[in-house]
Design brief:
The complex is a heterodimer. By secondary structure, chain A is of the alpha+beta class. Chain A has 2 helices and 7 strands. In chain B, strand 4 and strand 5 form a beta hairpin. Chain B starts with a strand and ends with a strand. The chains are: A alpha+beta, B alpha+beta.
Chain lengths: ~140, ~475
C-alpha cells in the first residue's frame, strides 16, 4: 500500500494518505505535506520535537496537526523527516494528537522546492475506520 | 451548471436554490471552458448563498477553483446583515503587486542585466523557510502591523511619495495587532522583508506595447523599451496564520453545520469575532505593504549601485489582490457602505474615486496584472463602469490551469531556464523544481485574461511589459 498519492487539482495540491491505523494515516499525511516542500527521505534525524495538538473533530485535528509542520518551518527552520510515537485520543471535548517529530534544521545542503501556505478544509475526508484514509488539499 | 449568456464576455448563474443573488462570470468563451473544468462555478454559487450579500456575486476572467470562495471571486456584504469570511480573502492576505518605473531603457541595462538580477537575488531574501536580514523584536513587529509601509518609510526604506502611490496609502488604519495570535507574530518575526516562494517574484521588465499613451504618461510610462520593476509577494507566514487562526475561531464559535464547504466559515461583520478578524487581517495587510516597501527599497539600492543612479525609479502603484475592506458603492440606486471581499481580484476604480491618489484621479487607478513566469504582464486602468459591473474589480493574474504536481512531473526547471534565455530572459531561483512548478504552460494565457477585462469594461489596457530578468522566490 502506498503511503500517499497526489491527485489533479488546478491550483493547489490534493493528496490522499493511507495507513493501518488512524495514527499511521495521519503520519503519512504529514509526510505527504512535507513532500510538497522537501524530500523527507533525505532529511537527517538530528532533532526531535514533541508535538501536541487538539481539535474539535478529526478534520480540525488533522488541519491543526499538519499546520504544525508549517509553523515549525517558519519559526524554527525545521524540516520533518519522520514521525514517531504518534497517538490520537478522544477527549471529553474533541480530540488530541501527540507525536514526536524527527528531522533537521534547514541548511543549504537541503533543497526546498515548494511552498505551502496553509492546510485547507477543502474536499477534506477523514475515514476513521479501516481502510483508513485522509484526503487533504493544501494551499500552495 | 446552466449559464445564461448576457454578452460575449458575461455569463450569469441565475438565482436558484439557496442563492440570495445571481452570480456573474466575466469570461470569454475560451476562458469559460477552462472554468467549467473545475469547481469554480460551484464555489461562486456558494458565495451567492451567504447572508447579506449585495447585488451579485462576481467571478473575474482569471478565476479558478479555490477553497470557500473561488480565486477571482468578488462579493460585497451589507454591514448589518452581512458576514466577513477569511475564505473570501485567502490565506495570503494582501498578496499584491508593486510596480516601479525607471528612466532606463533596455539598451542602458543590456550589459548589466545579469549583474542587476544577481545583486537583487543577493539583496532580497527568498525561498521557503528563509528568514530576512531584519530580525525584529515583537514590539517592532506590532508597529509594522499597525503602520504598514509608513513604518518602512520612517525607517529609511523608500520615500513618502511611495505611500501616496500605494492602495490604502500603505496602511489600513483599522489594523490592531493585539488581536494577532502569538503564533502569527512568531511567524512574522523572521519573515519581514522576504519574498517567499511559490508564484512570488521580482521581475525586471521592459515596456513592449503602449495601448493608451495618454494614460500611460500619467502613470510614468513614456516609451517602448523603458525598464520597469515588478514585485509580487504577500504577508508570508503571518498572514497565513491569521487566516488559519480565524477559520478555527469562527468554527469553534459558530460550528460548521449547514456550510457547503468548511472554508466558507464566516462571522457577522458586526460581531466581536468578525471585528477581530477584520483588525487582524488589516494588520497582516500592513505587514505585506511593509514587506513590498522594503523589497522595493533594496531593488532601488541595487540599481543605484550598478547603474550609478536610481533617480526616476518612482513607484507607479501597489495593489492588493487578496483583501476585504469597507467601501462605498451604489446599490439599487443608493450609495451605501459595504464590506467587499476581493480574493484573487484587483481593485479597479475609475476616475474620481477618493480612494485613489490625486495624480491618478482624473484617469483612474493603475491596475497591475502579472502574467506567469517569463510571459507578459499588463498595466490596466480602472473604469467607472467597473463599479457597476464588479464593485470596481478585475482580474489579478493569469490563473493556473495545471496543478503544481503535474507541472513538476512534466517540466524541468533547467530546460525552462534555457528556453527563457533563448528569449533573452535571465532567470534566478532558489530551486529548479520550484521553477518547474511555475512553468508558463501551467497557466492560463494572460493575454486572453486582460483582453476579456478590457472588452468587458472591468479595466482598460494601458501597457504591456515583458520580462528581461526574473527572480523567482
Amino acid at each position: 500500500m502506498d503511503m500517499y498519492k497526489f491527485f489533479h487539482h488546478t491550483a493547489d495540491a490534493k493528496f490522499q494518505a493511507f495507513g493501518q491505523s488512524l495514527e499511521e494515516t495521519f503520519a503519512h499525511a504529514a509526510l505527504a505535506l512535507s513532500s510538497l516542500m522537501w524530500d523527507w527521505k533525505k532529511i537527517a534525524k538530528n532533532i526531535e520535537i514533541p508535538v501536541e495538538v487538539e481539535g474539535n473533530d478529526l478534520e480540525q485535528l488533522l488541519v491543526n496537526f499538519l499546520e504544525e509542520i508549517l509553523y515549525l518551518l517558519d519559526t524554527r527552520n525545521f524540516l520533518l523527516s519522520s514521525i514517531d510515537n504518534i497517538l490520537i485520543k478522544k477527549e471529553t471535548e474533541g480530540w488530541k494528537i501527540q507525536a514526536l517529530f524527527e528531522g533537521d534544521v534547514n541548511t543549504t545542503e537541503y533543497e526546498i522546492f515548494g511552498d505551502v501556505k496553509a492546510v485547507t478544509y477543502n474536499e477534506m475526508i477523514v475515514k476513521k475506520r479501516a481502510p483508513f484514509m485522509v484526503q487533504v488539499v493544501a494551499d500552495v | 451548471m446552466e449559464l445564461k449568456k448576457i454578452n460575449a464576455n458575461t455569463w450569469e448563474i441565475p438565482k436558484h436554490a439557496n442563492m440570495r443573488v445571481p452570480t456573474i462570470i466575466y469570461a470569454s468563451e475560451k476562458l469559460l471552458a477552462g472554468v467549467r473544468g473545475d469547481k469554480t462555478l460551484f464555489q461562486a454559487k456558494n458565495v451567492a448563498c451567504l447572508p447579506g450579500i449585495q447585488r451579485k456575486a462576481y467571478v473575474m476572467p482569471d478565476a479558478h477553483q479555490g477553497y470557500g470562495f473561488p480565486i477571482g471571486g468578488v462579493a460585497a456584504f451589507d454591514l448589518q446583515e452581512g458576514v466577513i469570511s477569511p475564505g473570501g480573502v485567502g490565506y495570503d492576505i494582501n498578496c499584491g503587486v508593486r510596480l516601479l518605473k525607471t528612466d532606463f531603457t533596455e539598451k542602458d541595462i543590456r550589459d548589466k542585466r545579469k549583474l542587476l538580477l544577481s545583486e537583487i537575488f543577493k539583496e532580497v531574501p527568498a525561498g521557503v523557510g528563509k528568514g530576512g536580514t531584519t530580525r525584529l523584536s515583537r514590539k517592532v513587529l506590532e508597529e509594522v502591523c499597525t503602520k504598514g509601509a509608513e513604518w518602512a518609510v520612517e525607517n529609511g526604506y523608500g520615500e513618502k511619495d511611495d505611500l501616496l502611490k500605494t492602495e490604502e496609502y500603505g496602511r489600513m488604519r483599522e489594523a490592531d495587532p493585539s488581536h494577532l495570535s502569538p503564533r502569527a507574530l512568531e511567524r512574522g518575526v523572521p519573515q519581514l522583508g522576504t519574498l517567499g516562494a511559490g508564484n512570488h517574484f521580482i521581475e525586471i521588465q521592459k515596456v513592449s506595447e503602449i495601448f493608451d499613451p495618454d494614460v500611460a504618461k500619467v502613470f510614468g510610462i513614456h516609451s517602448l523599451d523603458q525598464i520597469m520593476v515588478m514585485i509580487h509577494c504577500g504577508s508570508r507566514g503571518l498572514g497565513h496564520q491569521v487566516a488559519s487562526d480565524y477559520i478555527r475561531l469562527m468554527e469553534n464559535k459558530f460550528g460548521t453545520q449547514g456550510l457547503p464547504d468548511r472554508e466558507l466559515i464566516h462571522a457577522p461583520i458586526r460581531s466581536d469575532l468578525g471585528k477581530r478578524y477584520y483588525k487582524s487581517m488589516s494588520a497582516a495587510v500592513n505587514f505585506a505593504f511593509a514587506n513590498r516597501q522594503m523589497i522595493a527599497h533594496w531593488v532601488r539600492s541595487v540599481f543605484q549601485r550598478i547603474m550609478g543612479s536610481s533617480e526616476g525609479m518612482d513607484q507607479v502603484y501597489d495593489v492588493c489582490h487578496n483583501v476585504a475592506k469597507f467601501e462605498r458603492h451604489t446599490i439599487e440606486g443608493r450609495v451605501k457602505e459595504v464590506c467587499i471581499h476581493r480574493k484573487g481580484a484587483t481593485r479597479s476604480f475609475g476616475p474620481g474615486r477618493k480612494e485613489i491618489p490625486e495624480i491618478y484621479r482624473s484617469v483612474g487607478q493603475p491596475v497591475l496584472i502579472p502574467g506567469s513566469m517569463g510571459t507578459s504582464s499588463y498595466i490596466l486602468v480602472g473604469t467607472s463602469m467597473a463599479e457597476e459591473l464588479s464593485f470596481g474589480s478585475t482580474a489579478h493574474g493569469a490563473g493556473r490551469v495545471m496543478s503544481r504536481h503535474e507541472a513538476k512531473r512534466r517540466f524541468r526547471g533547467e530546460k525552462i531556464k534555457q528556453d527563457l534565455e533563448q528569449k533573452g530572459i535571465e532567470l534566478r531561483s532558489t530551486s529548479w523544481r520550484g521553477v518547474a512548478e511555475e512553468a508558463p504552460q501551467a497557466y492560463k494565457n494572460v493575454d486572453e485574461v486582460v483582453r476579456t477585462s478590457h472588452e468587458a469594461g472591468l479595466g482598460q489596457l494601458v501597457a504591456k511589459v515583458i520580462p528581461v530578468g526574473v527572480m523567482k522566490g
